[in-house]
UniProtKB/TrEMBL annotation, chain A:
Bias type Basic and acidic residues, positions: 180-195
The keyword Ubl conjugation is annotated on this UniProt entry: yes
Organism annotation: Sodiomyces alkalinus (strain CBS 110278 / VKM F-3762 / F11)
Keywords (A to Z) from UniProt: Acetylation, Coiled coil, Cytoplasm, Cytoskeleton, Isopeptide bond, Phosphoprotein, Ubl conjugation
The UniProt record lists the keyword Transferase: no
Chain intervals for the UniProt region annotation (Disordered): 18-44, 170-206, 515-535
One GO cellular component term noted in the UniProt record for this chain: dynactin complex
Subcellular localization: Cytoplasm, Cytoskeleton, Microtubule organizing center, Centrosome; Cytoplasm, Cytoskeleton, Stress fiber; Cytoplasm, Myofibril
InterPro entries (alphabetical): DCTN4 (IPR008603)
Record protein name field: Dynactin subunit 4
Assembly, per entry: Subunit of dynactin, a multiprotein complex part of a tripartite complex with dynein and a adapter, such as BICDL1, BICD2 or HOOK3. The dynactin complex is built around ACTR1A/ACTB filament and consists of an actin-related filament composed of a shoulder domain, a pointed end and a barbed end. Its length is defined by its flexible shoulder domain. The soulder is composed of 2 DCTN1 subunits, 4 DCTN2 and 2 DCTN3. The 4 DCNT2 (via N-terminus) bind the ACTR1A filament and act as molecular rulers to determine the length. The pointed end is important for binding dynein-dynactin cargo adapters.
Automatic annotation (TrEMBL), chain B:
Cellular component annotations (GO), alphabetically ordered: dynactin complex
Protein's cellular compartments: Cytoplasm, Cytoskeleton
Keywords: Cytoplasm, Cytoskeleton
Name of the protein this chain belongs to: Dynactin subunit 5
Highest taxon above the source species: Eukaryota
Repressor in keyword set: no
Amino acid sequence: MAPLTPYTYIQCPCSDTSFSPSGAPTSDDKTEPEDDDRTFDPRAPRANYSLYPLEYLLYCEDCHQIRCPRCVNEEIVTYYCPSCLFEVPSSNLKTEGNRCTRSCFQCPICIGPLVVTSLEAPPEPTLLAADNTAQPTGPYVLTCSYCNWSSTEIGIQFDKPNGIYQQLAKMSNGGKPRLTAKEFRERSRKEKEGDPESPSSPLTNSDVDAELQFSQLKAFYQSQLNETNPQAAAGLGSLADLGISSPGSLSRIMSMYTGAGHGASHKQSRGRLPVMREARTLDEGFQEADLDDSALIEKLRASAFEDTASTDQRLAQQPSLPSHHPLLFVDDLRPIPYLLRTKRSKRCPVCRHIISKPESKISNPRFRIRLIAGSYIPTITVRPFHAPESHNVPSGLRPPVPAELWLAPHRASQYVLTFQNPIFEPVKVTLAAPAATPGRFASTVTVLCPQFDISANTDMWDDALKEEGEVQLQLQRRRAGEDGGPAQPEPGKIWERGRNWVSIVVEVVPASLRLDGLPPGPGGEEPDRSPLKEDEDVLEIPMFVRVEWEADTRDDVGSSTTTRDNKEAREKRELAYWCVLGLGRIARG
Amino acid sequence: MSRRPPKGEYIETDTGNKVSRKANLVGTQNIILGGRTVIQPEVMIRGDLTRTAASASSTGGSAPANNTAVAIGRYCFLSRGSLLRPPGRVYKGVFTYMPLRMGDHVFVGHGTIVQAASIGNNVHIGHGVVVGEFVIIKDYVRVLDGAVIPPNMVIPSFSIVGGQPARVVGEVPEGGHETFELRDLYKTVGNNPQPINA
C-alpha cells in the first residue's frame, strides 16, 4: 500500500450542492453556503469530482471565487508535437490530423520513442577520415531503444532518414506499397485498357485498405450526388468540414429549405426523384465481405500468446489502420505517430475573464496570466502532532521519505493544521467540522481553536530579510516548551503563530474498523456489515473554512495609488468553502 | 546535534554548494556547479566521461578547454545514492560521451540514475528513477518514483511522467509551479541545517 501522507483537498463551489448522501435534490442557492444542517461528505461518489488539491485550483478575481479544472473553459493556444517540440499550425490540423507528421513515432509494443537508425554497419573507425565523416546511408529503420523492437519486424524499411511519416503512409506492413487513390485509378484504367505494361496481377480486395476504400466510396457517392442533385451536392461535397458554421453546411441547409419549400420546385423535384446507385465495383469502393476466417484462425493456431497484440497495444494504435481484419497480431501493429499536445488558456465560466494564459511559444514555459487559488486562499498543511521532529532527521537523509502513519482506533491523536495566508491583508479564519466524520465508521473530531486571525503576508524581500530572525524565534519557542515539560495544546488557543501563518491543533478519536462493533442505525435497523470498501479506512475530516478580510475596492490599473490614500474605499470580502483533511489510515484490529 | 563529525559533514563552497564528504565525484575538473547545489553522501558524478578528442574539431569554434562533462545549475539537489553519468554514443564512427546539462532547481531522488542530455529548470525526478541516455527533459517536469525513461525520449514542459517505460501521465497544474522551488530544501541540509518549515 502506498504511504498515505496527510493531504488537504478543497471543494470547488462549481459542483452541485448535493451534500446529502441520500442524493435528494436541494434547491439551496450557493450564496448560502453557511447552511449548518448539512455537512459535506467526502465519501459521496460525487465528491470525487469536486475535490482538488490546492495546486489545481484557479481563482477568478472578478467573481472572487475558486475555479477548478472541471468548471473552467479551456481554449487552445498552440498545438505542438511533444517529441520534436515543433508547433503545428491549426490549418495543418484540419488536413493532416492530430498527429505529428514529421518523424516522431512511438513503439507499437512498449510506446517508447522510436529513433531512425541506419541498417548499414557504421564504417570502420580505422578507415580514412574522409570516409568516416560520410553520413551513413540507408536503408533506415525505426528502432525502439527501450524494448529493442525494430520496424524490420513488420517488414518496413525506409530509403530516407527524414519524412518518415510520408514514407510510412505509402507502405503497408510487410513492405508492400500502399496504393493511393490516384495510383489505384491509374492502375485500374490501365487494366481496363488492357495495357500490356500493366502490373502483373489484377487488382484485388487486398490492394484496397480501409483508408483507400473510404476515399473511393466518398468519391463515388460524391459523383452520384452531383448527377442526381447538383444543388444539394454542393453542400454535401464538403463533408470533410462538417459543422454548422462551415459555409458548406449552411448552403446545404439553405438548399433544403428553398428547394423543397416552394410549390414549383417541389413538384420539380418530385418529378425526377433522385435515383442513386450503390457502389458496385472495386474502384467504386465496393468490397465483398471476406467471411473466410480460416487463414486467420490458422495463423492464430500457429502463433504463441506473445504474438497477439494486447488491448493496450491495440488501443494505442492509430484508429485508421490499413488493415483488412481486426487487429490481432503483433505484426499487424504499426509505429504510432505522436499525438499532438496543446497549450491551453483558461477562462472563468461565469464572467469569461481569462484566468490562465500561457505564452504561445512552446519553448517558453512562462504564463502571461496565472491566477491560482494558492495566492488568494490560505494554504492548509496537516502534520501529526507527535511526529518525529523533522530537524532530527539526519541531513544526509533529507528530504525525509514519508513513512506511513497508522491511526490507532479509540486512541485520541492530535494533528497540527497550519494555515498560511498568501494575501497582503490580515484575514480572519473560521472553521467548522462535524463532531463525527460521515460514513460507517464515525471518528470524533474536535477542532481546538476554530476561530483565529492570521497576519498579512509581506513582500518577498521582507521575507528574505526577516527569515533568519524568525527561524531563531521559532526555535526558541520550541525549546521553551521542552524546558517546561512537553507543551500541551489547549482548547481555544492557537498552537503556534508566525508572520503570516497560524497553527492550530485538531484532535481526533479514530473509530474502530470492526464490523461487529457498528452501532445500529437511527431507526434501530441493522447496520451495514458489508466488508470494508476501498479506502474506507482512510480518516477524512470534512471541514468548512470561512475566510474574511478587508480589501481595497476593485480598482483599475493605474488608479491604485488614489484608492490606497482613500481609506474609506475598503470593502469586506468573504470566501467560504469546504475542504477535506485526509489524516491517515486507521489500523485494523 | 548528537554525532556531528568534527569537520562537518559537508564541504561548503564560496558559491554555496554543499558537497558531502562521502560523495564520489570523478573528474571534478569537468564538473561545473552553478552554486547553492546540494550533493548528498554516496552521490556519484562521472566527470571523467568527457567528449573524446574527435568531436573537438567538428564543433569548430568552441574553446579547446571546453570539455565539460556535467554542468549543473543553481539550487539543484542530488539525493543520496544518485548517479549522474554523461550519455555516450557512436558519433561519426567514434564512440563519444556528450555533456549532461542540468538547469536550476532540479531535484534528483534517492538512488536515481540520470543519463540525460539535458534537463531544464524546475524539474523533480523522484526516487529510484532511471533516466535513459540522451533524454531531454524540459522545464517544470515531474518524474514519478520508479519511472524508467527510455533513451532518446523528449519530455515537454509541464508533464508528469511515470511508469516503465515512462509515459506522460498528467499535466503539472498552474498552481503547482512553486512546488518545484528548492530554496527551502537547500537550507535544511548542510553543516548547520535549519529545520524544515511546517
